[in-house]
Amino acid sequence: MSGEKLLQGAGTISYEIAVEKAATEYKKFQQKTLSEAEKNYP
Fold first, then answer.
1. Domains of the chain: which residue ranges?
2. How confident is the chain (42 residues) per 10-residue block, as mean pLDDT?
3. Whole-angstrom Cα distance, residue 21 to residue 2?
4. Buried b (16+ CB within 10 A) or exposed e, 7-39
């Protein structure tokens, strides 16, 4: 590898915060990738 740290601050984020962040980002991704039919049904 390059010898650089890949993860900055590893272990400083709680599991709950990480799961919440992942869910939020996934929802943003889904909104960008919805088909027209999916957009019509919330």
1. 14-42
2. 65 84 91 77 68
3. 28
4. eeeeeeeeeeeeeeeeeeeeeeeeeeeeeeeee
